[in-house]
Amino acid sequence: MSGVNKVILIGHLGKDPEVRHLDGNVSVASFPLATSESYNKDGKRIEQTEWHNIVMWRGLADVAAKYLQKGKLVYIEGKLRTRSFEDKEGHKKYSTEIVAENFTLLGRKTDFEPNNNSASSSTAAEPSAEANKNLGTGEFGKDEDERDLPF
Amino acid sequence: MSGVNKVILIGHLGKDPEVRHLDGNVSVASFPLATSESYNKDGKRIEQTEWHNIVMWRGLADVAAKYLQKGKLVYIEGKLRTRSFEDKEGHKKYSTEIVAENFTLLGRKTDFEPNNNSASSSTAAEPSAEANKNLGTGEFGKDEDERDLPF
Amino acid sequence: MSGVNKVILIGHLGKDPEVRHLDGNVSVASFPLATSESYNKDGKRIEQTEWHNIVMWRGLADVAAKYLQKGKLVYIEGKLRTRSFEDKEGHKKYSTEIVAENFTLLGRKTDFEPNNNSASSSTAAEPSAEANKNLGTGEFGKDEDERDLPF
Amino acid sequence: MSGVNKVILIGHLGKDPEVRHLDGNVSVASFPLATSESYNKDGKRIEQTEWHNIVMWRGLADVAAKYLQKGKLVYIEGKLRTRSFEDKEGHKKYSTEIVAENFTLLGRKTDFEPNNNSASSSTAAEPSAEANKNLGTGEFGKDEDERDLPF
DNA sequence: TTTT
DNA sequence: TTTT
């Protein structure tokens, strides 16, 4: 018997993805994602931010390492998983993570450049009055194919 | 700035909802929900169950108290919220909950009876070879209206 | 540039799936699905039914042919696709379909039997006061593996 | 009995919203939305665009008229509805629409300015190397409150 | 054309 | 702690 366990988030990365390599060359990327909600209370605009622990595996982790960076806006689809572990003092703790199944970059075209040339990319952007047309999305993780030029 | 924080679950209640009443007569219902996923590993069928802490507020909590019970199958839509608290020993802990925004009962018609007559409902059901036709869904929480006869 | 195009439905099949086999042995299954919404208007309970054209391809079509039948309750995840075509009189028409990516059977265990023994299944059910415990879900389409015993 | 009928889209507006006012001062906004999907076929990058007819009612239509414009990137949540009608020649036709329940603007902060000053906004943007920080989202339609300054 |  |  099976069920449904689905999470859909749109938010900004709080940090660059941290990538580890496990046995058998398996990649795991993880990073915090902030989703913000704003509402009115007593006439004031309140903004409430929720932080999520995102985890990506294998091919998806590799694309994340390449295209995701602190501050970027991203759509993530995944599932909830709660792990239990003991901290250094031996106390049992729980951590709930979102295991991502695919993601889509949201934002301007210039946000979709790979990370390695991050120094130059900030100057390469050259945004102009035309930048408005460059809004778009880059989708990852639906297929398992290698995609070096995903958009 | 706002984002998207959405969870969609289909699973079974692990316990009856526990309902508390806060100041100002605000109801809060909470219960664990199991979503199961099964997959093949080395030719064996593995079933993995994930447990979620569901929280419902106000009107939704009242309907939950009335219609949800341990074992029932339910569709839940909500958002993630992580609270931090200190346990009895003063250690900081985190708890991630799904704050439900609406739910839909899935299952047979006889599952949609209110909870108070649970003793009689088990006999009132009179399931037969025709029971197959009684599968259906009962939806809650989309409107804020009082719904004493929601289906 | 990519985007998000996602549909989530829970409803009943209006007919048995119709399966065709295209060139290269590609299977396509299609069937109508009803999702019902009920609300109060002027003190009366109104039920509004929406019909969706569901299409499933390849492996998913084969599992659909095996496990889905008129009347069954199912969770479907997919994407929207609008096709244009000319009817017999040469008038241009549009048809919007949901191309399913995975589905999960909702209902009692006895609903999860393959279709070929449909005659016997109606008597094999033997529902009792215990039948309540038999609610569950059977998930399909997440992996591309052959699954002859999917639950 | 009720079910689930949910659509989640992220895409660009193909035109400015067209707003009509029905009897009783009810607003209806409608516009086409493009969601694009790209995949590799025979080593070539194929981009396939799907067009959706979006409809928004009442308060949501008013916010749409104010903040949505041709080209903007938006997250939309809603439900499917298929209407039948007769064209001028008396032929029966079907139109499937997404009735939006809420939406969130995605893109740069400068995209979140109201529509009336569209001429100046293109110059007011003054994007810079810092523009990267201005990515964000503005959410609408969750509450029914008036929101003149929604972010 | 489903389901209640 | 559910369900199969």
UniProtKB/TrEMBL annotation, chains A, B, C, D:
<comment type="subunit">
    <text>Homotetramer.</text>
</comment>
<dbReference type="InterPro" id="IPR012340">
    <property type="entry name" value="NA-bd_OB-fold"/>
</dbReference>
<keyword id="KW-0238">DNA-binding</keyword>
<dbReference type="InterPro" id="IPR011344">
    <property type="entry name" value="ssDNA-bd"/>
</dbReference>
<protein>
    <recommendedName>
        <fullName>Single-stranded DNA-binding protein</fullName>
    </recommendedName>
</protein>
<feature type="region of interest" description="Disordered">
    <location>
        <begin position="109"/>
        <end position="151"/>
    </location>
</feature>
<feature type="compositionally biased region" description="Acidic residues">
    <location>
        <begin position="142"/>
        <end position="151"/>
    </location>
</feature>
<feature type="compositionally biased region" description="Low complexity">
    <location>
        <begin position="113"/>
        <end position="132"/>
    </location>
</feature>
<dbReference type="GO" id="GO:0003697">
    <property type="term" value="F:single-stranded DNA binding"/>
</dbReference>
<dbReference type="InterPro" id="IPR000424">
    <property type="entry name" value="Primosome_PriB/ssb"/>
</dbReference>
<dbReference type="Pfam" id="PF00436">
    <property type="entry name" value="SSB"/>
</dbReference>
<dbReference type="GO" id="GO:0006260">
    <property type="term" value="P:DNA replication"/>
</dbReference>
<dbReference type="GO" id="GO:0009295">
    <property type="term" value="C:nucleoid"/>
</dbReference>
